[in-house]
Amino acid sequence: MTERPTALEIVDGIDLSGRTCVITGASSGLGRESARTLAAAGAHVVLAARDRDALAQTAQWIRAEVPGARISAVELDLTALASVRAAANAIRDVAPAIDVLMNNAGVMFTPFGRTSDGFELQVGTNHFGHFELTRLLGPQLAVAAGAGGQARIVTLSSGGHVMGDVDFDDPNWESRDYDKFVAYGASKTANILHAIEADRRWRGLGIRAYAVHPGTVATALARYMSRSDFSRLRKLAAATSAARGEPTDGFLDFSTPEQGAATQVWAAVSHELADKGALYLQDCRVSDAVAPYARDEQRAADWWILSEKLCDSS
User: Is-catalytic flag, 210?
Assistant: First the structure.
C-alpha cells in the first residue's frame, strides 16, 4: 500500500501568505497538526478551542516549529452557543476576512449528555456549535471570496456517518433510548448535510464547502471507547468494507495525526477543488462513499432550516 502523505507534504510548494485560516479544536490532534501545517505555508492561523492553557501551549509549539508564524487564539466552547457567538465576535476582530474555516473539533461516542442549550452532546458539539459559528462567520468568508479568491468551509465528518441518520422529529434524543454509536453517526451525517447546503447557499458568493473523512486516526478522540466499543467498531468497519467490495482483515487501519490531517488540509488548499464544492473527501480525493441519506440535497436544505430554528431559539 502506498504510504499516506502527511499534511506538510500536501502544502509543499503552496504559499498561503496573506490568507487567514480559522481552525476549531486547534489545540490537539488533527486541528493542532492542521494549524502547524497551514502556518508553515504562510497563513495567519486563528486557533479556536475551549481550553485557554492548551491554546497557549499550542500557539507556543507552532511558533517554535514555524519561526515567524502568525498565530491568533480565541476561546471557543462549542457546547454553549453563547460562547460560539462570543468567539465569532472575537474572530471578527482578528480576522476581518477568512479564507478557510476548518470545522475540525468534535467528540465521539460520549455517554449521554446535553450541551448548555439542551442539544444532545454529540450533535450539539459536532454540528450545532459549528453550524452557528459558520453562519456567524459567513460575512468574513464572503469578504475573502470577494477579494478575488475562493473561501472554503472544511467540516470534519467521518465514515462513521453510516452508523446513524439525523432524526428530524427527535434530533436531540428526547424520546428515544440513547445509543452513542447511532448518535455519533447522526452528528457526522449532520456535518455532511451542512456542507452540502452551505455550498448551495453560498457558492454564488465564492464560498465552497466540503465534508472530510480523515480516516481512523490515533488521537484522544477515542477516550470514551471501551474494548467492546472497539469490537463493535471493527465489525462495522468490516461490514462497510464488504458492502463496498473492499478487502479487509477485520482490523482498524490507524494513521498518525500528521497523516490524518492531510485530507482536511488538501480540502483547504488544493487547486484541484477550485470551483467545486458539496463534496465528500477521503484520502486526499473526492469519494462517493456516502450514505444516500447523507447526500440528499432536499434533506440538506431541510436540515439547515431546522438547525436555524433550533439555534435561533437557544
Answer: no
